[in-house]
């Protein structure tokens, strides 16, 4: 059987063609520009146009190119200077010097017309309809610029429904850069590729093995296993013989214990794959090891390295424990529950109210709050990658309703209440020494307020006792400075992004309503500015910055506890709700972003 030399590619929607001016390709976009005087540019354009006019008028032409029934007059010198292919054809040792008509086999006449037009004008229109024939023709005639433009065009049209077809096409026509981009796209959007199914189910075992063996695959092992079973069931008789080779790339120890048990108890699964019992037993053994023992198996690690996720916990309105966590995967845009296997102190098994959190190198520090045991000065550290808690150094003073932030490798805790009075005291934890020490008191006591950092300073914003007040703290001078008051709203959310301090939402006692207004403070101008509005007014929401946007999480609105999350983009001053809500509505949720290195299963 002769090898298949054709690949069909598809486009999910219709796109307009892109016109290329021939002045630069994707490899030289950043190579800089040459200074040209306007007269030279005009001359070059006139010369190009004049030469093309000569061709179209068949003037001074000395060769005819033929593809099928299409015949095109041209100039040997122009063609030879345009590509190595034509140079070898007309000026090389085996040159066709005497032939008036040169037949180019395997080329479509319309495509040859486009390429000759490009040689004379430097312009070509790449479209969905012609790119599949244009790229291999450009390869054949060694018109590298056109080949690169076609590759760039295909990259812009990548979609989960066509990326595998594009990958085959790129490999067939020796386009390594396009092939790399297609493979990376398939790895990043693997779940969508599998869900579409049309191209995924046609993969050969070798093609599928190349993808699932990649360490850059952005997906959980359970989902990889499910995709393998889906691929296998599409043609069970033929594909069963490849299963053993493919399953060896699944990292079974990273699959949830519950699903491993399900496979273990499945008579039909093990009957068809008795060799899989080895993988299951290996996984059970690994999951029974201590965290220290697991480190001895570096090959068993989550693919694609750490990924940014948003972790949300706490719910001041329904007495939910701190250990009840939800996690949002920015890539899949889905929420998952994250079970916590162990707690460092017995107190963490109880409701922990009005604590504060911060993140240090993906370790989540939970400070203060109150439980059934009283006001806490404890610091507990949760490692989401190892899924364990441990105790940290206690604060000097018990606090709840406090503010906490991280600056220059130190954790600052300020304000709150000790159960008797509101506090103006503040303290700092040196993470290197593990010791707390007091710093200058805030100008006034603060309770249920925000403590954030910006431009190497700490900002104390709002609070029940001083809802309008804003003060900044400079660690070098150990001093606090009053700043312009913020708009009078109860329980807004606060976050910094770049050199802007944002205050979001809150409750207006004057109007008796939940607000969604967004304000920002610029240290440079020293003024507050209105910057947009949320789609849903809310107070007591969590807020965090990620990739140039703010995520406003939960809170309390007119309908009660909110499970929705809004994404606010300061550049457009627009806010949109995420397509999927949290499982639970939450007031005053604790929100952090971490680099998660382990599987969620």
TrEMBL record:
Superkingdom of source? Eukaryota
UniProt keyword annotation of Repeat present: yes
Annotated keywords: Kelch repeat, Repeat
Q: Which InterPro entries does the entry link to?
A: BACK, BTB-kelch_protein, BTB/POZ_dom, Gal_Oxase/kelch_b-propeller, Kelch-typ_b-propeller, Kelch_1, SKP1/BTB/POZ_sf
Keyword Membrane, does the record have it? no
Secretion signal, residue range per the UniProt entry? none
Q: Which SMART domains match?
A: BACK, BTB, Kelch
**Pfam families in the record:** BACK, BTB, Kelch_1, Kelch_KLHDC2_KLHL20_DRC7
Q: Where is the BTB domain?
A: 61-128
For region Disordered, the annotated ranges are: 1-36
Give the protein name, as stated in the record: BTB domain-containing protein
What is the organism lineage in this UniProt record? Eukaryota, Metazoa, Spiralia, Lophotrochozoa, Platyhelminthes
């Amino acid at each position: 059987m002769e090898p298949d030399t054709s690949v069909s590619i598809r486009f999910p929607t219709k796109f307009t063609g892109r016109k290329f001016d021939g002045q630069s390709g994707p490899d030289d976009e950043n190579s800089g520009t040459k200074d040209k005087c306007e007269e030279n540019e005009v001359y070059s354009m006139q010369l190009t146009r004049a030469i093309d006019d000569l061709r179209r008028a068949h003037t001074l032409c000395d060769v005819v190119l033929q593809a099928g029934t299409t015949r095109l007059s041209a100039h040997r010198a122009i063609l030879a200077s345009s590509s190595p292919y034509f140079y070898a054809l007309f000026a090389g040792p085996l040159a066709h010097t005497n032939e008036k008509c040169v037949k180019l086999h395997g080329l479509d006449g319309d495509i040859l017309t486009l390429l000759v037009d490009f040689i004379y004008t430097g312009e070509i229109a790449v479209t969905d309809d012609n790119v599949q024939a244009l790229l291999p023709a450009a390869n054949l005639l060694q018109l590298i610029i056109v080949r690169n433009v076609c590759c760039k065009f295909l990259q812009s049209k990548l979609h989960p429904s066509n990326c595998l077809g594009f990958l085959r096409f790129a490999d067939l026509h020796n386009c390594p850069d396009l092939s790399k981009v297609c493979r990376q796209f398939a790895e990043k959007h693997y779940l969508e590729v599998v869900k579409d199914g049309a191209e995924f189910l046609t993969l050969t075992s070798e093609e599928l093995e190349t993808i699932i063996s990649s360490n850059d695959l952005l997906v959980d092992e359970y989902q990889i296993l499910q995709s393998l079973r889906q691929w296998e069931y599409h043609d069970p008789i033929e594909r069963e013989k490849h299963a053993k080779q493919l399953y060896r790339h699944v990292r079974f120890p990273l699959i949830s214990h519950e699903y491993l048990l399900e496979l273990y108890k499945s008579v039909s699964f093990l009957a068809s794959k008795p060799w899989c019992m080895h993988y299951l037993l290996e996984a059970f053994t690994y999951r029974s090891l201590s965290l220290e023992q697991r480190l001895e198996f570096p090959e068993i690690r989550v693919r694609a390295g750490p990924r940014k996720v948003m972790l949300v916990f706490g719910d001041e309105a329904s007495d939910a424990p701190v250990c009840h966590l939800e996690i949002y995967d920015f890539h899949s845009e889905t929420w998952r529950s994250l079970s916590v296997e162990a707690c460092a102190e017995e107190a963490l098994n109880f409701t922990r109210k009005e604590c504060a959190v911060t993140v240090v190198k993906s370790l989540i520090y939970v400070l203060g709050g109150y439980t059934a045991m009283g006001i806490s000065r404890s610091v507990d550290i949760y490692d989401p990658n190892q899924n364990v808690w441990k105790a940290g150094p206690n604060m000097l003073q018990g606090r709840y309703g406090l503010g906490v932030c991280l600056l220059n490798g130190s954790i600052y805790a300020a304000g709150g209440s000790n159960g008797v009075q509101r506090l103006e005291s503040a303290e700092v934890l040196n993470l290197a020494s593990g010791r707390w020490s007091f710093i200058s008191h805030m100008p006034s006591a603060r309770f249920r307020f925000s403590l954030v950092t910006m431009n190497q300073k700490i900002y104390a914003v709002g609070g029940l006792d001083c809802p309008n007040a804003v003060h900044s703290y400079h660690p070098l001078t150990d001093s606090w400075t009053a700043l312009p008051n913020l708009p009078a709203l109860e329980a807004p959310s606060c976050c910094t992004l770049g050199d802007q301090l944002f205050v979001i939402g809150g409750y207006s006692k004057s109007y008796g309503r939940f607000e969604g207004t967004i304000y920002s403070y610029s240290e440079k101008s020293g003024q507050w500015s209105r910057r947009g509005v949320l789609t849903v007014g809310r107070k007591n929401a969590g807020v965090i910055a990620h990739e140039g946007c703010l995520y406003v999480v939960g809170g309390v609105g007119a309908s009660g506890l909110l499970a929705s999350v809004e994404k606010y983009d300061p550049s457009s001053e627009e806010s949109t709700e995420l397509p999927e809500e949290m499982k639970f509505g939450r007031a005053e949720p604790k929100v952090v972003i971490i680099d998660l290195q382990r599987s969620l299963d």
